[in-house]
Structure formats: structure tokens, C-alpha cells
């Protein structure tokens, strides 16, 4: 039987992973534009009780990358990466909240759709899903042949829908939906971060801290030149 080295990766793959993670979580205008698009799409899907549209919104949302980047920063004890990822994630959450709030005020009519209610009841299964999704996303990010699995993983874990429902709940003055959606998002956020920290630690990314800091500096410099 062939031995599986799940957590053993080459130096080249480590560097490629870090470059990809930093690039995909860079707080650019296009990054936040896609955050807005995904939230608008999710809001329309939730308000119209359309599951297919909600799934589509998860496919275009880039919010998973700064979360994984934060997990990587914690695993590497890299203050720069943690700070950068936290700022990107914080801005994304704020933009998502404002966007969903505006869309809800403009388009929400009638009673809350069943799709919204169904997605605002966090339980232990949601915790398990977040952990499994974090494990899958972390491994898929590092393994080149599994990179194409990331969009599917983004669908499996609820990140965009609860972010959207926070604004919808507040716009409707429905504190139950607001609180449950916030809790669901936090459960998924913590679950993914925790699992990614474990995976990246087992893969021994700590030794690439210098490379990470250099990549961040180059990426930020390039972004400043383009802005």
C-alpha cells in the first residue's frame, strides 16, 4: 500500500501557497468589488427564497482567502500577515454588512423568506461543517492538484449567507435572525481559522516567515504603484 504524506509538501509548494494566499487576500478595489457583488447576489437570493442564487453568491465571494491567510499568520506567528489579513477581513465584513443593509431596505418586501430562516439556526453540525471545510480548504490550497476544489469548499461552509443575513435581520428589526446569523458566521469563522492553524502548523510553514514578509512587502508595493 502506498504511503500517504498528507502534510508533507515541498519548499516550492510552500512558496507558491504563500504567494497565492497573499495575492488573493490583498485588499484591492477588485477584491472589495467582488465582496459587494457576492453580498448583493446573496441578498437577492435570500429575499427571493432562491437557493441557486445563494449558491452562486458563494462561488464569487473571495472572503475565504483572508480567513485562511489569518490562519496562516497565526500558524507562522507572523504579525504582519495577521495584521494584514485581519484588516482585510474586517473591511470585508463591514462592507458586506452595509451592502446587505442597503439592499434589504430597498428590496425587502413582505415576510422573511424560508431560505433565510433555514440559514439562521446554528447547531453542532454547523461547527463540524466549519471544521471539515477548514481542513479541506487548507489542504486544497497547498496541494496544486486540489486547488480547483476550493470553490466547492466555499459553498459547503456558510460565510456569505450569514454575513448577508446580519444586514437583512437588522433592516427588518428581527433580532433573532440578526443574532443567529452573527453566531453562525462566528462559528464558521473560528472553525476555519482553528483548523487552518492546525493544518499549516503540521505542514511546517513557520520556517517561511521571512519569505512571507518579503512577499507582502512586494505585493503592497506593486499595489501602491497600480493605485
Automatic annotation (TrEMBL):
The keyword Transmembrane helix applies. InterPro entries: DUF389. The keyword Secreted does not apply. Keywords: Membrane, Transmembrane, Transmembrane helix. The chain crosses the membrane at residues 30-47, 53-72, 93-112, 124-142, 149-171, 183-207. The lineage of its organism: Bacteria, Candidatus Harrisoniibacteriota. It holds the Pfam family DUF389. It comes from Candidatus Harrisonbacteria bacterium CG10_big_fil_rev_8_21_14_0_10_38_8. This is TIGR00341 family protein.
